[in-house]
Amino acid sequence: MDQNLYEASRKDPFLSAVDLQKEWTPACSVDTVRNRLKQKGLKCRTLACKPSLTQFHRQMRYVYAHSKLYWSVSEWHRVVFSDEKIFRSSSRGALRVYRPVQRSDRFDEQYLVHSSNPVYGRPRFTLCVWMAFGGNETELCEDNEEKEHIFMQDLSSVHTSKQTKLWLQEHNVNVMHNWLPKGPDMNPVENVWAELVRRLEIHWRQTGVRNRDQLWEDVLQVFHELPKEYFENLIRSMPRRVRTVSSKHEGRAKY
Fold this sequence. Notes:
Shape: globular
Mean pLDDT: 81
Low-confidence stretches: 116-123, 142-147
Number of strands: 8
Largest sheet: 4 strands, mixed
Order of helices and strands: HHHEEHHEEEEEEHHHHHH
């Protein structure tokens, strides 16, 4: 039985434990199926989402990486990285996949779905949060505010609109204009989001989420638990990220 479960899961890693139980072991519980797969080295993981890159995206990513190839850490300290994220009180319904526990193959094609075909759960509460950090300054807020140094924002339509550009010009914000397309792997704020989500999931196992206000308070709490060294290490990772994209000739940095 164990070998049949293992082979079926390896053949189609998107099969859930419930699917495998119905097909192969109707007399056993779903938890038994999960335990048997875990003993075989397979554990249910959150599905990786890989950005869909066109040839234009690849070329522009390489151009950006090449232009920043010789930037030092001190130069990256001048950049104020920013991003937005929608936090959800529940991630039920998100697609998961069984893959080997000890292997670093999260981004293998058989274990991921491209961003052009995402699968999301339906949350009960949502909260849109904006974050920016750079150098020795770190801030988390619900509304965008003027920043100094070189302000980095991605190429979403709300950032590239005429109104946004006009506001930034009127407030003399020095914007990084050549940010690469499809660049979440180059934005260290994405790492912060992932760490916050990880900590929130652990926190919510005991407390749950009663309302939107608590969701915001929990996000703030886990954010302020992050040490300053964490943000410093993210900034120090920028030269490595740039070298990775440049050396892979338009490829993706695994961050």
